[in-house]
Amino acid sequence: MRLVDQLTQSLPIVLMGLLALLTYWLVKSMPAQEPSNNTDTPRNGPDYTMEHFTLRVFGQSGVMRHQIEGAGAQHFPDSAHLDIQNFKMRSVNTQGRISTASSDRAEIRNSDTELVMMGNAQIVRQAGSRMRPPNAATKSAATKEEWPRLTYNGEYLNVNMDTEQARSHKPVVLTRGNDRFTADQMELNQLAHTIELSGRVRTMLAPDKTLEPPSPKPVKP
Q1: How far is the C-alpha of 101 from the C-alpha of 17, rounded, in Å?
Q2: CA distance 89 to 168
Q3: What's the alpha-carbon Rg for the chain, to the nearest Å?
Q4: What is the mean pLDDT of the chain?
Q5: In terms of C-beta density within 10 A (0-12 exposed, 13-18 middle, 19 or more buried), how is residue 170 classed?
Q6: pTM, full prediction
C-alpha cells in the first residue's frame, strides 16, 4: 500500500501539470489561424510547426520551475493533435522535488486533455529530502522528510486529464527506491488511488531498513 500510494500520487500529477502548462503556452504562443474560404476540404498537413524549442517557466523568486524541450513539433488541424519529437520535461515543485519526463515522441490529443508518450517513455521523480520546521501547536521538533527515487519506464504511456487515469498496453517497469514492479500492462487511477498490473507481473520488495531486527535471546548454558 505504501508503494501504491506513492505511485498514484506522483505519476499522473507530474504529467497532468505538464500537459496543462504545455497546452497553455502553445495557445498563447501560436499565431491566430487565418480564416479559410474553403471549409469543406480537410487539411491533412500541419498548420503550425516548431523546431528545437524550449519553454522555461520561473517562479516569483526567479527560480526555474518548469522546462519543456522538443526537437520539433507539428500541429494537425484535421485531427486536432500536436506531435512532438524528442520530448523532454523537467519540473521542480515548491517543496524542491525534481521530476523529469521524456520520450521519443509525444502527442497531445482530444482538445488538449490527453497526453500520449511513445518510445523510451520515462518518468522520474528524483530522491531528495528537506527539513520540516517545528510545529508549535503540537510542540514537535524539526524533522527530516525524505522521499525515494520514483520511476516509470516503458514504450508507451497514455495520460487522460479528464478521467485522471494513466495506462499502458505495453510492458512497464515501476520502481520506488529499491522496490521494483514489472508487468505487461498497467492501469493507474488517480481518483481511486489504485494501480492494476496485469500479464506477467513480478514484484521485488526490499526490506525496510528502519525496522530493527529482534534482539537475540540469550542462550542458557
Answers
A1: 12
A2: 20
A3: 22
A4: 77
A5: middle
A6: 0.74
